[in-house]
Design goal:
single chain; alpha/beta; TIM Barrel; 8-stranded mixed β-sheet; about 425 residues; globular; 2 domains; Urease, subunit C, domain 1; 8-stranded parallel β-sheet; 16 helices
Length: about 425
């Protein structure tokens, strides 16, 4: 996904990019638990040496230039801070239509469950997405992915789940695959056919999941449309018993599994940890008992501040999860209903103030820890051997990035070492 095209003359050519006022490589940092800002490595007047889209070395720009005189120089002028590209490990950006009506009801005091029972919610998006042609879904997805990329998000997980029958789930996943060849970002598809029991399915939840397992998942595997399976464990979706059977079956077929867990009620996180799921996402309802399960687990706790903002509810207990030893990632949950904004950096910055997360913990949650939630080992830090997915901000101090709570956007974004977004000439300067 998001592949590279290289000419013969580009092979084995080294490029040195810099000098940057500061570089935060985020290398050598812990995968689990709390992180102090004192653990952040800050390289002043730094550079990144790249070959064939992969980082060779990150360090002092002048030293790298002397060490590699043959390298082509991509010069950076002015004050800029370089960080790894963000990784959004939970989105629903393949959809059609709007749920502005839901939001209007919500800010009048209606609950998520009340709106769902009245015909809104996920099912409303299902009906609108089913009516959209595959080409329309691809176009809409591409537009959202390109906006995300321009805001520094170089890898984007994208779920299905607004089809909820075989034909429309496949339509969504094929649209994601089609968009992956067109967007600058890498798209990581996930099958969320277990988003909700379809209202037009006459059987039980177990019967529906059995149908997905036997009819849909083999096609997805044969067409290589996704290697990940997700399920929404909640009172208006699927209970833990049927979810366990489905996830175990998916794992036996070779899929990685992840869980929408503990958004409104508990049980999902416990199941995710028990099954060794790649991640448990949401966790707004997780309390001390659930948080204690994360200690020693390799299941990533993915918190979704965009959903809390969109629903007007509490944040997931990110501080407590980190202090309990969790590998904590931060994702946008960009979707048409509960998290329509889709601004990952703004959401993370605002939540960090509420949950008292340090700069190092936020950046870790947006980069290498989010990569771990997707089981990606080739990105998330600016260290040797990693993909050169990078973004530069127009400031001299890395702390400005969170200080401006998402208003400060990157002026340059690189994917696989290639500059793919450059607004350096028209960005607004930050106030000093």
């Amino acid at each position: 996904m998001g592949g590279r095209i290289w000419t013969e003359s580009m092979v084995n050519m080294k490029t040195l990019i810099g000098p940057f006022t500061q570089i935060l490589p985020l290398r050598g940092m812990p995968l689990h638990g709390a992180i102090s800002d004192k653990q952040l490595e800050v390289i002043a007047n730094g550079g990144v040496l790249i070959e064939d889209g992969v980082i060779v070395q990150t360090g002092d720009f002048a030293s790298l230039r002397a060490q590699y005189p043959e390298a082509q120089i991509e010069e950076i002028s002015g004050e800029q801070v370089l960080v790894p590209g963000f990784i959004d490990c939970h989105t629903h950006i393949c959809f059609a239509g709007s749920r502005a009506k839901d939001y209007s009801l919500r800010i009048q005091g209606k609950t998520y469950m009340e709106i769902t029972k009245a015909g809104g919610g996920i099912w409303d998006s299902v009906m609108q997405t089913r009516q959209a042609a595959a080409t329309v879904l691809t176009s809409l997805l591409l537009e959202r992915a390109e906006r995300h990329f321009a805001e520094g998000v170089t890898t984007i997980e994208v779920k299905s789940g607004y089809g909820l029958d075989q034909a429309n789930e496949l339509k969504q996943l094929r649209a994601i695959k089609a968009a992956s060849y067109l967007t600058k970002a890498d798209l990581i598809p996930t099958c969320l056919a277990a988003h909700l029991l379809p209202r037009d399915f006459s059987g039980t939840a177990a019967a529906y999941l059995n149908q997905v397992q036997h009819d849909l998942l083999p096609v997805i595997k044969a067409e290589q449309l996704a290697s990940r399976v997700d399920i929404f464990i909640e009172e208006n979706a699927f209970d833990t018993s049927v979810s366990r059977d489905y996830l175990v079956a998916a794992q036996a077929m070779g899929f990685d599994v992840t869980v929408h867990a503990d958004q409104f009620s508990t049980g999902g996180l416990a199941l995710a940890v028990a099954l060794g799921a790649a991640s448990a996402d949401h966790l707004e309802a997780s309390a001390e008992e659930e948080i204690s399960l994360i200690k020693g687990s390799d299941t990533v706790a993915v918190v979704l501040p965009g959903a809390s903002l969109g629903l007007g509810m509490q944040y997931a207990p990110a501080r407590k999860l980190l202090d309990a030893g969790a590998c904590l990632a931060i994702a946008s949950d960009w979707n048409p209903g509960s998290a329509p904004m889709g601004d990952l950096l703004m959401q993370a910055a605002v939540m960090s103030a509420a949950e008292k997360l340090g700069t190092a913990e936020v950046f870790a949650g947006l980069t290498f820890r989010a990569a771990h939630a997707l089981r990606l080992t080739d990105r998330g830090t600016l260290s040797a051997g990693m993909l050169a997915d990078m973004q530069a901000y127009p400031c001299s101090d890395y702390r400005d990035i969170l200080y401006f709570q998402g208003k400060l956007k990157p002026v340059k974004v690189w994917k696989n070492g290639k500059l793919r977004s450059d607004s350096d000439q028209n960005h607004l300067s930050i106030d000093k």
